[in-house]
Every structure is written in structure tokens, then in C-alpha cells.
Write a structure and sequence with these properties.
44% helix, 282 residues, 7-stranded mixed beta sheet, alpha/beta, 13 helices, Rossmann fold
């Protein structure tokens, strides 16, 4: 299990993993989007067009997800994912950036932000977190099951579409908004070589050994931070968003009513409005 010190070493070691990404727009400032557990950059589809009119938008698939490589190795810790994100940003020489992270991707974004605060501060201008992983909590059932050794491996016998639909039903408040297209988009990578292995290893290594120590450092992130939360989020309840808002020195919390764990999917118009207001005022 990696720790912060391991993460610093990983960022200095050139990885042979090239993360799949897509770019839109050509603004002077860059928004980098990091998706959550079990999904892909597809989750941002409804935000791309309006935001790319003003900003350069980069969507990234994490290692093991979407169209990124899915090697059958043991290197799927949250710190490893954060190191790959930092290396991507350095290779692309991205400046004046805002990192946007959802759920598990929010946890990765917090770690990367701490890195830039201490090592390369000029690159990072803002941070946006949606229903973000940040503290110790009860894990949602679909993650807990994958972490159980024998049960997790047996999950490969369950069709990917069934697994994805079950996960989305936990994430959405309004299940009627779950489309066949979304289920298909998130299921396809699971059926690819290494797909099941990647999601199981990510679930097992989701919680860093030094999470409590790490969370006490959030106060170092003194850039403007927008925190967006679905009021009815049952996966990461609002209390964690409120705690994060208290721990970050320059943050604001926006709560979206009648919304579950994924505002960018359930309430895209409200999410875009909140994003643009924040980005234009900071």
C-alpha cells in the first residue's frame, strides 16, 4: 500500500503508462477532468461543449478505466493514479489549470493538488471537487464486495452490464435518468482484457494507509476551491462535503437539490452554471 512518500518517488519515475485523453476547445486556461471509480471520461459528456467555448478542456481516463491501458499488475493505488496525473500534466506542460475531480477522482485530485502546492505551485490555479472522496468512511456496497478476495474474483461471473447498472442505481437519485447508452459505455471497458482485474485492484487499493495523516494536510491547498455536492448523495453523504469545506482555507460549497452522487450526470445544467460562475469569479 503506497504512502505520501511513495507517491513523491513515483512522480519522479517516468512511467510507461500513457493515459488516454481527449481535448476540446482552445482557451488560455485549461480544465483537466478526472472521473470517479468504475466509470470513464464519458461521465463528463454533458459538460464539454459549454465549457470548451471558454476553456481548453482535457478529459482523462485513469489507468485501468475507459480507453487507458489495463495491465494486469498490482499498481492501482490512489497514489499511483495521482502520480500518473502529475506526470501527464508535466509532460503536456500545462499551466493556468483547474483540476476537476469527481468521487474517487476527487481524492486523486486532492493528492495532485497537494503536490503542486509544494512542488510546482504556479501550474495550479483552482480546484473543483464533486462529491469527492476525502476521509475515512463506510464504503459503498459495490466497492466493499470487490475488496473481498474470493467474492471480488467471483464477480467476473456477473455480466458487466448488471454490475454497472447496480452501481449506477446506487449513484443516481432518479433511476429514470440512467440510459442504455451510459450503461453500455461504462460496461464495455470492463469486458476488455484486464478490465475486471483493474477495477478489483483499484477497489482494494482505494484507501491509502496514511489517509488520516493526508487529510490533515488539506489546509495547505490555499487556492480557490469549489465543492459541489448532491444533497441526496448516499455514497458519500453531504457531511463529508461540509467537513471538506471547513478544512480548505479558500473554498465554497454548492449543494444541488434532488441529486445523488453524480451532479455532472443527473444535474448537468445546474453543474455547468455553478462551474462557470466560479471560474469567471476566480
Amino acid at each position: 500500500m503506497h504512502t505520501w512518500n511513495d507517491f513523491l518517488k513515483l512522480t519522479d519515475e517516468l512511467s510507461d503508462i500513457n493515459l488516454y485523453h481527449e481535448e476540446y476547445g482552445s482557451g488560455e486556461e485549461t480544465l483537466i477532468f478526472i472521473h470517479g471509480f468504475g466509470v470513464s471520461l464519458y461521465t463528463w459528456r454533458r459538460l464539454v461543449r459549454p465549457l470548451s467555448e471558454q476553456f481548453k478542456v482535457i478529459l482523462i481516463d485513469l489507468k485501468g478505466f475507459g480507453k487507458s491501458p489495463k495491465p494486469e499488475d498490482k499498481h492501482y493505488s490512489v497514489y499511483l493514479q495521482a502520480s500518473l496525473l502529475v506526470q501527464f500534466i508535466k509532460r503536456q506542460d500545462i499551466k493556468k489549470m483547474t483540476i476537476v475531480g469527481h468521487s474517487y477522482g476527487g481524492g486523486i485530485s486532492l493528492i495532485a493538488s497537494l503536490y503542486f502546492m509544494n512542488r510546482d505551485r504556479e501550474r495550479l490555479k483552482r480546484l473543483i471537487l464533486l462529491d469527492s472522496v476525502a476521509y475515512e468512511q463506510v464504503l459503498p456496497p459495490f466497492v466493499h464486495i470487490l475488496r473481498i478476495p474470493l467474492v471480488g474474483r467471483a464477480s467476473v461471473l456477473i455480466p458487466a452490464r448488471v454490475q454497472v447498472l447496480s452501481m449506477m442505481k446506487e449513484a443516481y437519485l432518479d433511476e429514470k435518468q440512467i440510459t442504455k447508452e451510459a450503461v453500455s459505455a461504462y460496461s464495455k471497458p470492463l469486458d476488455e482484457p484486464g478490465g475486471r482485474h483493474a477495477i478489483i485492484e483499484t477497489a482494494r487499493q482505494m484507501i491509502p494507509a496514511d489517509l488520516d495523516k493526508l487529510s490533515r494536510r488539506y489546509g495547505e491547498i490555499d487556492i480557490p476551491v469549489l465543492i459541489v455536492w448532491g444533497l441526496e448523495d448516499s455514497i458519500i453523504p453531504l457531511q463529508f462535503g461540509e467537513r471538506l469545506n471547513n478544512d480548505l482555507p479558500d473554498s465554497r460549497l454548492e449543494i444541488i437539490k434532488n441529486c445523488g452522487h453524480a451532479p455532472q450526470e443527473e444535474k448537468p445544467k445546474e453543474t455547468i452554471r455553478i462551474f462557470i460562475d466560479f471560474l469567471n469569479s476566480h
